[in-house]
Design goal:
The protein is mostly helical. The chain contains 18 helices and no strands. The C terminus is likely disordered.
């Protein structure tokens, strides 16, 4: 797609390779990275979005989660190989730069901005719903409707959504070590609460609630998988920590595979226990479905309050982890000259991109506070699937162009595995509907225009010979 291709060696040289990154410090170990990954994945998708998947697939929602997981597994293999071979902050963006060229990389970064932006904003809105649920459980009071929803939903501003984004930004600018510790604590807590939920749900399990199992047919399972896929968004954020992880060539691939395994088992158990306890009709369309299940099964609001507390913690950790990933991708794009240089400035005191973080927080807070996000969830899904298809393709291209590249992990059954990953991504993309494809085409056209107007002209490769691996050190904050 572009003649400007940056080799893996050049990307590694510019990022600091296996040494300290330019201003970034390697402070995360494997355990913290796994917790970071779980923190990025487990949140609104299961606490809020489960009901949407159930509405599409009915009792066969478990198969929808499995289908979405299969897509993620093949793609996770590709992320693991590339994350171990090119451990830099740019994640999918950098992988595309090294394989398909600059224009494709810019469009991948553009899609990631949509993925992470809508993800954080939607997650923040979900956090607001569970804060209200928790407050009612503890005090019997609710927040004013005007302060918990945007104008399109009858409110004025979703204030809790803005607050959680601001809190996450404040923690991120303090340092990666502090953020990683907070994410680890929140990840362990929410896993524990979801396990308790499963125990409660299975205690009331009725096999009759699973019949008819696939009443909506294969189309319903596929549609449910497209919705469920949103629940897995975030595992790719692990690769954005490539410059701040100790021994990244080993830890990044391991963390990705461990996270996908944990999350898939957890999601399947939660979905099965929820539907088995109340039935698909009772769960479908409920914004706080897990609290509803516990309240109905236990006959008390206390259990629902505990689930609401877990959701508040879980969703906050997603905001924290996904915002981290977005700032690191913008840092890499800025380092390459494709976005303004303000995004690559790293504070020498905290070793974090402070201005970058606050800009991202401000941009993400606006749709969280005012905009209805349900209209762009499908657009986010198709954009994410497109990025994952590109990552699978990047594995194939780099195996051919750079066979000697050091790879700490190799995808199994190559090239079948990445080809299956591409196939599953395209299959789920087809399930989003033609209107979403039209929106996606317009979105890509806007991204291509931005690249032509700004990115191509300011690119480092526009003024630097392709073989020049000299690094441009980020400015201090």
């Amino acid at each position: 797609m572009s003649s400007r291709i940056k080799s893996p060696q050049q990307l590694l040289a510019e990022s600091g390779a296996d040494l300290e990154g330019h201003g970034l410090r390697r402070t995360m170990g494997l355990f913290q990275l796994v917790c970071f990954g779980v923190g990025a994945i487990v949140g609104t998708g299961i606490f809020v979005g489960l009901s949407g998947s159930v509405a599409e697939a009915g009792p066969a929602v478990v198969l929808s989660f499995v289908l979405a997981a299969i897509t993620c597994v093949f793609t996770a293999f590709s992320f693991a190989e590339l994350g171990g071979a090119i451990p830099v902050s740019g994640s999918s963006y950098s992988f595309a730069y090294a394989s398909l060229g600059e224009r494709a990389a810019f469009l991948v970064g553009w899609c990631l901005l949509l993925e992470y932006g809508v993800s954080v904003s939607a997650v923040a809105v979900g956090w607001s719903q569970y804060v209200d649920e928790l407050l009612e459980s503890l005090t019997g009071l609710r927040l004013p409707a005007a302060l918990t929803a945007g104008p399109a939903e009858g409110g004025v501003v979703n204030l809790p959504a803005v607050i959680v984004i601001a809190l996450a930004a404040g923690l991120l600018v303090r340092g990666v070590r502090e953020s990683a510790r907070a994410t680890a604590a929140m990840a362990l807590l929410k896993i524990g609460i979801l396990l308790v939920f499963c125990a409660v749900g299975f205690s009331a399990f009725r096999a009759g609630h699973l019949s008819p199992f696939a009443g909506h047919g294969v189309a319903g399972i596929t549609a449910g998988a497209s919705v469920a896929f949103f629940s897995y968004i975030g595992f790719d954020a692990i690769t954005t920590a490539g410059e701040e992880v100790r021994n990244p060539r080993r830890n990044v691939p391991l963390a990705i595979l461990i996270c996908i395994g944990i999350v898939t088992l957890l999601y399947g158990a939660v979905a099965l226990s929820a539907v088995g306890a109340l039935g698909a009709d009772a769960v479908a369309g409920q914004p706080a479905a897990l609290s509803l299940v516990v309240d109905r099964v236990t006959g008390s609001s206390i259990g629902g309050g505990i689930i609401a507390f877990g959701a508040v913690v879980a969703i906050a950790s997603v905001v924290l982890a996904v915002m981290y990933g977005q700032t690191r991708i913008l840092l890499s794009m800025s380092r390459d000259g494709l976005v303004p240089r303000v995004f690559e400035r790293v504070s020498p005191r905290s070793a974090t991109p402070v201005a970058n973080t606050w800009i991202v927080a401000a941009v993400f807070a606006v749709p969280a506070a005012f905009a209805p996000l349900d209209v762009v969830v499908d657009l986010t899904t198709i954009g994410t699937l497109a990025v994952m298809a590109v990552v699978n393709l990047a594995v194939i291209v780099l195996r051919r162009r750079h066979p000697g590249l050091k790879r700490s992990f190799r995808v199994p059954l190559f090239p079948l595995s990445p080809l299956l990953g591409i196939g599953f991504c395209l299959y789920l993309m087809a399930g989003t509907g033609w209107t979403t494809w039209v929106q996606f085409a317009v979105f890509l056209a806007v991204g291509a225009l931005l690249y032509a107007v700004y990115g191509r002209r300011h690119s480092r490769l526009a003024v630097t010979a392709p073989g020049d691996g000299a690094a441009r050190a980020p400015r201090g904050a």
